[in-house]
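<tokenise_the_fold>
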Amino acid sequence: MIKRNSNLFITIIVVVFVLSLLLGYAVALGDLQGALLRVSQSFSSFGFLQGLPGTYLFVFIFLNNAVKTFLSLILGVVFGLPPLYFIFTNGELIGLVSALSIHSNGVMTTLAALVPHGIFEIPAVIISAGYGLWLGWQTILAIAHRARLGEAMKFALGRYVKVVIPLLLVGALVEAFVTPLLINLTLRR
């Protein structure tokens, strides 16, 4: 019952993610300069990552993603609003970045930069936010005395440890060590 119920919320998160990604892409196409400014502001605090050795980059990427996805899940108890915001802003940012990258570097370089690690990280983010949204619903049910929030929290945290963390580990490894190589290969063409 719990698993079947939680899948609906993951599906909702997928829909929000796709819509926000398309919105970000469309916004960027309509105003490339505005999109570039927004993306620059979003990534301005990550300038120190340039030139970091792969191992340090891997650790940073993993810890950054693990903390953010964990907060998205756990803060879902606030009626599901934080995970919705988290997934919307991430989807919109990926849409903005994709449009700008395609405009500047072409489709192949953009795919090389996003897909290899994205096939691991995006599902991890979606699953975590989906369970966060589900916890928001479980909170509402607990307030109405129709559910036990503790059981739901235990289930969601178990999924986080068993599913999200491994996906984030692989995604960070790929992003730190494989993605840069693929980008360089596509830029040489």
Q: What stands out?
A: The mean pLDDT is 94. Residues 2-37+54-184 form one domain.
